[in-house]
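Hi, here's the filled form for the chain we discussed.

Project: internal
Contact: R.S.
Residues: 357
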Amino acid sequence: MDAYGTDSDARHGPDDPGGTPEPEGPPEPADRPAQPSDQDDRPETAAHPESVAHPEPAGHPEPAARPEPVAHPGPVAQPEQTARPEPDGQSEPEGRPEPGRHAEPDRDLEPDRHAEPDRDFEPGRHAELVVPPQPGAPYAETRTGVAALSPRYQIGAALALAVVAVAVCVHLGMVFLHVAPSNTLTKAHGKAIDEWVYPEFEQNWKLFAPNPLQQNIAVQVRAEVQAKDGEVRTTGWYDLSAEDGRAIDGNLLPSHTQQNELRRAWDFFVATHDSDNRPSGVRGALSENYLRRIVALRLDRDDAAGQGGVVERVQVRSSTTNVAPPRWSAEKISDKPMYRVLPWWPVTAADTDGGVE
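And the returned structure, exactly as it came back:
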């Protein structure tokens, strides 16, 4: 013990070292954590702990930039709450908030307290940038038709259209010259026009002409048949036009052959022969062969030769009868038929078999 009593454990008053000791307070609890001896290391307690800048723990990643929304939404990834650091040597009791602090977690430690968590972001998936259409922005027009083809096919389509257009123009021109009155072009190129038009594109004005057709024309044929015993006989007249008429009557869908084959063959013959039944050109012989084969096949279908007989020759004629006027008309016309009889034509095997001579 020194002169000042520094070795003594007794407390001294402020004025006298040997004065009356201060009354001792209640004993401190045994489980109270020890306070650090160095008061400079203790953190200062503020009235509002939220305003105090808390040290950010080492290794804490900075908030990443908010990714753009992806096209396929995934599960929501909630950011992990970082444990709040405590001062050295102190631990906050569980279930009891620290005095002077609010119960809410410190908002300064959240990555982005003003932005809501991205609900479309899924960790581990590449972010896809989806650009929505801007209002008022022009949309790309979808190409269709020829514009959708490649340049090479567009050139091919253009050439094909050009060829079709030229063919149509030539055809219309030929038909116009065929039905037009005689002129310089038809006189100079009449043969080429006829070869283009006949027989597929032949035109006539019998229905709309000033003098339309007012007659009924029937094509008839008879045959000279050699019987099996060698006897030669002549059959009666077969009205082939009447046979076609009976096949057409009551038929909702008559065939083109029944309606036009025989009629067009007779018109073809009349147009290429004079009044004496002499051919007026190369097409005259063609029309004769065409008409002869039609009637030969019709006679074979009607079994005109009989059992074992052979058709040697055929003769064709037309029966023209005027159409009767209506009852209210005072017009008087003849109702007797007029005939145009052709010469006998020999029949060959090529005519009945459909071959070519």
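Let me know if anything looks off before we file it.
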